[in-house]
Each structure stands twice: as C-alpha cells, then as structure tokens.
Amino acid sequence: MKIDAVITWVDGDDPRHRAKRQQFGTQKMLNTDDVAGNTRYKSVGEIFYCVASINRFAPWINKIYIVTDEQNPNVEPFLEKHFPEGFIPIEIVDHKTIFRGYEQYLPTFNSICIESMTWRIPGLSEYFIEFNDDLILAAPVTPEDFFTSEGNLVCYGKKYNSLIVKLHGLLKYHRDGRKRVTFKETMYNAASLLGRHFYMIKIYHTPKALLKSFYENYFSEHPECLINNISHRFRSPKQFNAQELQYLDAYRKGKCELRGAYDLLYLKPKKGIEYIKEKLKLFSAKKDCKFGCFNSLDQTSDEGKSMVVDWIEKRIGL
Fold first, then answer.
1. What is the pLDDT of residues 74-101, one digit of tens each?
2. 3-156+205-316: what CATH class?
C-alpha cells in the first residue's frame, strides 16, 4: 500500500501574504480569531518538526506534499542536517495547482477550502494522511495505525450527539451578532449533508487518513457542494469539514474504524508557562503516545516557545 503525507502550511508573516489578506478581508474579519485572525496564519517553525517527525517515526511514507500559497518553507537543509542518510521526498504544491479550473476562488485564506481540494494534488496516491503543520508524530507508527489491512480508514474520534452541537450553535456561539465558526459546527454541517441522523463523528486533533477516490466520486456527483465550500475566502459557519464528510460516509458503510486518542499530546501554549511545564512533564511520561498537537505556538512567550521546541526536538531525537 503506497501512502503519501499532505501538510497544509502558510507563513502569515510574509508581507505578500499579509497584503493579500488585507486586500480581500475586512478589518473586522482580520481581527476575529475564528475567521481570519493573525494566529490562523502564524508560522514559528512548526512545519520543520512536523516533517521531521514523519521522517523519524513513519519512514515508510512514500512522499510528503506541502501545500502552500506561493511560498516555500525550505525544509530540505533542516532535514539534510538531521537525516544525513536521506529523507522522504518532498514536493511543494501551490494553491493554483489544486484549484486548477477553480482559480476564481483564489486567493484563499481558508483551511476548510484548502482541505476540500488537497485530493487534487497531481500524482497523489489513493491513500494519504493529512497533517496540519502544528501536528507531529510522537512515537513510531505503522500503516495500520491509519488504514486497516482491508484498506478501510482508521479515524481517531468517537460518535457524538449532533443535536448537542446544533443546540450550542443556536444558543452559545454567537458574538457581536454573528455565528462563530467552530470545528464542531463544520463537522455538524458535513453530517447534515449526508442526511438527518442524530450522531456525527467528533474527530480528534490527529493526522487524518483519507482516500482520494472518495472526494473524486462525491464531488463529481455533488459539484455544488464543492463550489459552496470553496467559495469563502475566509472561514464561514456555512462550510463543512471535508474530513468529517469522508469519515462519516465510510463509517455508515462499515468502512471506517473509530479509535480513541485520549493520550493525544494536546497543548495550548497560550495558557502560560506553568501550564506548559505541567503538560510537558505529563507528556514525557507517555512514551508510547503517537500523536501531538501544539496549537497556536505563536501565542506564548519566548520562554514558553523555547520549552516546547526543546521538548519536541528531544522527543523526535534531533
């Protein structure tokens, strides 16, 4: 089974990228974290550790594709230093490539749009694993951690009452007269596309195992769904999570295995130094935990950032 990795990445400090955001977004949008706040685009080197962790703990990956917007993180010198005997081939894929035929929706600053289109990477294998750049592998993994021997999906998540999400959306997640964009809401929207059921899958913050053919078939049969999802340059509560769409469809057909990820190394550095110290101490005791997510590392202090980076480098063995 040939399996590729896909990482979505952007450097929001790039003056060209910042200028494009300001050109297409209102000031209110750009000041709203759940829509287009700066933290959504900040890069403080997470991509280097994401790629390094794949090389260290999943050397069986066929190829790594980094999807970006007229940028290049230049990870090769970093990998040459730490993996002198060789590393997994890397290819940079521009948004224009995956949006070919849909260029009118570019530029986009919306991860939901981009994840709806990654399956269009030329040469991408049928089986692929999608990463955000703030995800790392934290221990050795095998292909069976993502796809069963029958070729079915492995999803790290659990069944979740969709009515709870609907109720929260109606009562809780409104600010300044608008509906907030939340991860659960986008999953609920995907479940709604597949029919009226009382459950959805709550996906954990881990790498996502996906099939290219699902998207090819679904969006071929429902082209309006794709267009509706990619037509928002910035995040919108009207959008659906494409990964949820695939997982839920496969689960209902008996082709997706749900697994728990309760030992996921999940860190929100913005909570402060003492929180970071406590979390990293706890993480260090979990030697076999396979996945880590270090969310919004840009929002902590230099001291906190240094502590997290040092821990990651030690965990990956750099």
1. 999 999 999 999 999 999 999 999 999 9
2. alpha beta
